[in-house]
Amino acid sequence: MLDGIDFSYFTNQAEFVIRIFIAVILGAIIGYEREISHKPAGLRTHIFVCMGACLFTITSFYLLPDDIVGTADVTRIAAGVVAGISFIGAGSIIALRGDVKGLTTAASLWVIAAVGLMVGLGNYLLPIIAIVIAYVILRLDRVEKEKLNSKHYYFQRLKRE
């Protein structure tokens, strides 16, 4: 009854769906950290960047017709993603009177785009490790600021006593 059905199409589609969901989860991890830190590019932005990079990668490497792959440079889309995310990241950087804000957010968007590209290629281990490292680095900044604030509070309390 099912002998005439080619299931390879559905298998490929299922793999693509899994890649998109993994990209969403990985983007959400860093986006959540940015969100709770009250940064302008938060949860949704990081999810969209990671998912979009994943979708562009899937499109460039897997959805082209077989007869065009040999003549087309499929890496152009990945290069376009990098350039586009660099442009978005530059827009998140604000320089005011010698104080620069948004560099870390821009860098996190850049890393998220790279994670999305890797997931789109079907590589899961390297992006997961990168997300863990990025999350730890982003949280270390919060720990340092909390230490500085607590020391400042302690010294002010000593001065009052």
Describe the structure.
The chain has helices at 8-36, 43-62, 75-91, 103-121, 125-160, and strands spanning 94-96, 99-101. β1 and β2 form a beta hairpin. α3 packs antiparallel against α4 (103-121) and α4 packs antiparallel against α5. The chain has one domain (8-160). The radius of gyration is 21 Å and the shape is elongated. 75% of the residues lie in helices and 4% in strands. The model has no long low-confidence stretch (mean pLDDT 83). It has 5 helices and 2 strands; from the N terminus they run αααββαα. With 161 residues, the chain is mainly α. Strands 1-2 form a two-stranded antiparallel sheet.
Helix content: over 70%
Give a short account of the largest sheet: 2 strands, antiparallel
Radius of gyration, Cα only, in angstroms?
21 Å
The helix-strand sequence is HHHEEHH
Strands of the largest sheet, in order across it? 1-2
Proportion of strand residues? under 5%
Distance between the termini: 87 Å
Number of helices: 5
Runs with pLDDT <50, length 5+? none
> Averaging pLDDT over every residue, what do you get?
83
Quaternary organisation of the protein chains: single chain
Query: In the residues, how many domains can be counted?
Result: 1
Can you lay out the helices and strands and say which pair or pack?
Elements: H1 8-36, H2 43-62, H3 75-91, E1 94-96, E2 99-101, H4 103-121, H5 125-160
Antiparallel strand pairs: 1-2
Features:
4% strand, two-stranded antiparallel ribbon, 161 residues, single chain, elongated, mainly alpha, 2 strands, 5 helices
